[in-house]
Records
---
Amino acid sequence: MCEKPEPITTKAAKKQQSILTNAMMVFAKEGFRNTDVQIIADLAGVGKGTVYRHFGNKEQLFLATAKFCVERMSQYAQQKVMQEKTLPELIEENGVPLLLRKIMLACAEFYQKHPQTIEIMIQERAEFRESIYPTHLMFREENRSGLDGIMQIGIDRGELRPTNVMQASDAITDLLWGCLISGCLQGQKNKLVERVESAIDLLLNGLVATDRSSNTE
Amino acid sequence: MCEKPEPITTKAAKKQQSILTNAMMVFAKEGFRNTDVQIIADLAGVGKGTVYRHFGNKEQLFLATAKFCVERMSQYAQQKVMQEKTLPELIEENGVPLLLRKIMLACAEFYQKHPQTIEIMIQERAEFRESIYPTHLMFREENRSGLDGIMQIGIDRGELRPTNVMQASDAITDLLWGCLISGCLQGQKNKLVERVESAIDLLLNGLVATDRSSNTE
Amino acid sequence: MCEKPEPITTKAAKKQQSILTNAMMVFAKEGFRNTDVQIIADLAGVGKGTVYRHFGNKEQLFLATAKFCVERMSQYAQQKVMQEKTLPELIEENGVPLLLRKIMLACAEFYQKHPQTIEIMIQERAEFRESIYPTHLMFREENRSGLDGIMQIGIDRGELRPTNVMQASDAITDLLWGCLISGCLQGQKNKLVERVESAIDLLLNGLVATDRSSNTE
Amino acid sequence: MCEKPEPITTKAAKKQQSILTNAMMVFAKEGFRNTDVQIIADLAGVGKGTVYRHFGNKEQLFLATAKFCVERMSQYAQQKVMQEKTLPELIEENGVPLLLRKIMLACAEFYQKHPQTIEIMIQERAEFRESIYPTHLMFREENRSGLDGIMQIGIDRGELRPTNVMQASDAITDLLWGCLISGCLQGQKNKLVERVESAIDLLLNGLVATDRSSNTE
DNA sequence: CATGAATGAGACTTCATTCAT
DNA sequence: CATGAATGAAGTCTCATTCAT
């Protein structure tokens, strides 16, 4: 039961985790510039010096926090969508449109549970502007080929209209982010999933009436 | 008629304009917290005290700047789309889908010309979070009924699929914002229009292949 | 009586003077690193920000203080020795050996009155080491040609032994500094003049018995 | 009796030596306040705690370093000058003036080889000011009687002019220090010996032309 | 009404010292 | 006895805001 898993690594890691978790909360709540590192240290139950020992300076602490957030998101979505299956299995099971929907909803779920992550991304841009490449976009780039691949398969399978795959990837991701950010700004952090859901459905099926003989009938 | 364009007020107004314009540039480039009010005063060619006399404090200066940005955007889009015509005329001329497309592109055009506006919106959230309602969302709310109305007409005319109008409005606006922000973050401020264009087209027509009957046939 | 001399320049200059004077005292008493700029500000009766406004940062404040010290020394010695006369007049009046003696004693007098200056020079070296050229050595370089010139004249007049002028200049200045520093370190800041006096006399006349004929006779 | 040269003590002594040697280098290069004890510990290959165990605190470590420097100097000069001979033998061999010259040059040689020692002395004053009696002056005091004695003998032997012995001792030592410090500050650490040599020669023989009888002849 | 010098609260960061391991 | 992670006091510097001129 009590397997005693590497005590040394664990203790140091625990402390780092604690600092990052609290940093996430405080940065999200107060904003980067408005955050006093002392507060984070206090909440994490460590001295201010310890925070600096581990992360160097406030900027690096923030960047580490941003990375931490995105990684948690990545893990969550991976687990939620994949559930130990392979991509072909998932496509076979769901079909491409439904799979895309599931992926987006999995992301939305995470952000609804941890809306601080969105605030952190906004803070990151607000503070660093062009000087760094946004953490969550790095995640997006890393997974872009996956998304593009799925879309291509969807087109090949005749489930998606034959469109430019990259533009479609951008559109679906931009839509997700638009929903998340607007949702946050409107103070509806607890309705992110449904907002994303309805938006994705509209994107998948289109707003325009498909001709459509049937309508006039 | 209006023979004396009150020179005094005008001079004061000019100064305010100058301050706001420079504030916009500096806030967008440096971020709210990283901006020294002195710099804005210098660029505007006035003393620091004057800035404070006109705007009270740094926060109010920023908020005035944000409002200034959004109003400029509003004017631009209005003019670009309406061109002295009435809404019914526009719909008759373009049809609803094309009109929606035009509206979105007009907005995108403005933001591509003045990407600082996007940065300002990000700064606004980053600094004030829940404490104020975002300036650009106020614009969105004000024009929501217009957008909703157009969509309803589209549905009634059989040009749009019969969907929840408010959800569709949200989706199209979220998509716009997603494109703008992601475009900015990716350092592609000069491709905002084409990004919005391809995304809107996808949203209008949908990703999923329609009347698949024909495909399988 | 009350001539009202340029009030603007004077007021700003007065404040700078006040800051420098107090900086000199505090730096000399506490050492550069051990000095809190706040203390200097308090003593000068200004805010900390004012000190930074005028001098940029602590290092520049210190360097300005060092320069201030050396300039005061320079003025003092100039006035004390020259007394409105020209160099030839002085030489004619005193002869070279006596003039050298007077110069050294004038310097020594200043340092005895303001021993902080010596401490400042020590601090300068202690803090900046090779990174800057010592302020008081710059003064020394500037006046080197003068000293060398006097010595050359002394040799030409047969009052000084024909030695290497530059080495002699170095020796006499090094002796001065050795006296000043050692005097300070031994806590005999109020005996600097007499220490210098006796040392200079020994250097002028030499330690070795001049054979010499007369002695053995 | 003491056949086992206590290996434990020796090992500890080795560590102390290593710490002191490295402390000397770092203190001389970085200055007292700018030195991070961690750096010394790293260079010495021990933990920071060990440094504190051995020396108590940073100040005591520095003072120990200063003492270490002066002792090394003392040993060097002793060995270089005395070479297993007694004082009378040396005087007989060289005569007093030449012996004085040798002593000064021996000191200068050491400082030229280890100019850090000079920096350490400057640091000592810069940091501690009146609070401690300078380490190298303690050495000077200890050997003062020796120097005074030699001078007295020189006078008695008719080799030196009959001057105040203590003043002469001070002058010659001050001259040495003036040369060392000025040489260092001018960035001529590798010319200390020649600087001292020429200065001492001038002090011994004087600047003023002697027996001017011959001149007028 | 405009100005910009002065202010000082506030936040980052360093590093001497301690102490649990 | 050695270590080095943790601590927090202390000091630098910035900049929003004020106010005398």
---
Amino acid sequence: MIGKLVFFYNLSQTIIMSQRERILDIAETSMRARGYNAVSFREIAGEIGIKSASLHYHFPKKADLGLELVKRYSENFRTALNSATENAANPIEKIEAFIDLHRNALIEQELLCLCVVLGAEARSLPEDVNSSVANFFQSNINWLTDAYQDAGFENAPSRAKAGVATLAGALIASDSLKDNSVFEAAADSVLKS
Amino acid sequence: MIGKLVFFYNLSQTIIMSQRERILDIAETSMRARGYNAVSFREIAGEIGIKSASLHYHFPKKADLGLELVKRYSENFRTALNSATENAANPIEKIEAFIDLHRNALIEQELLCLCVVLGAEARSLPEDVNSSVANFFQSNINWLTDAYQDAGFENAPSRAKAGVATLAGALIASDSLKDNSVFEAAADSVLKS
DNA sequence: GTCTATAATTTGATAGAC
DNA sequence: GTCTATCAAATTATAGAC
């Protein structure tokens, strides 16, 4: 097999997904559910239907996979954020879109944010993976600072720091309690002026 | 050796710490730094100076250790909270004490909250460990709801959910960014009316 | 790109002596 | 309570054939 056929409902188009992307998809799902250290090469390979030795062809070390996962996740997050906000009528709608990305992870995907999970395991991870996770949080704080500023909120930088923290913790607490009202309460607080 | 001598500065008293407590202390520190799956019996035993086989005498399975850790952590947290709030002049001081417990973990201990870390790894953990982690979050939400109510804040239950989430996420983001201002911004938002 | 085979290490766990 | 000895399984990783 050279490529998995993926049909997108909104594109009358067929895309050949590379094996590399398929590996990243499965690894991301697994790690967002159970963490970096609970996921093995064998398990990822098994879900695709190849051997773990083949996985090492694509990602020589686990650290290589981890780093690429965080980079791709950050890029995809940014792309989704841009796409969801390009037609926003006002800055509040942008902040709502930011919240929606988190809500979608928790409720539709039933997964946490990759960087929240890796952030919790930080000291057991390769250092460059940690740096990338930190970059993700900083980018989000910067983005949210701008949005709060545009919306005319006071103390935008401080609000943005609190907002990013709130959504991160909301994923964990809401998931643990299996109570989406925790996430919604957190989302409300991020929007409140 | 039958007991490690522990001197408390505020008690002119010497306490013999049981081996069981010593194991729990080291396991807690390790797991709060690196997560459940990155910590092994051999490593914990090594730090105490015994063999991993001896550790199995105290905690037959890793799940037994994990469960006991969460229970003890929850009890200690509650005891510290009661102790810190018994002389509080008003409900706001109580909420500040709640925040202080988190601040102390991050800044003094340089560790995350055990239940925040385990919550992020939830799906890779034994189910009873997860239940105990969920209990921790629910207890804190209940406690904070009462405090907000006493302080006369509106929507106390919703605020409490957001507050617990905010402090949980603040630990992760602040630690990842090595930027305590993230925690302080989050702490401010928890206190704001 | 994927496979088989294998190495080197780590891990959770047990049996039985002291 | 702790030890030695040991196990079975899992893990990351590499070499070399196809």
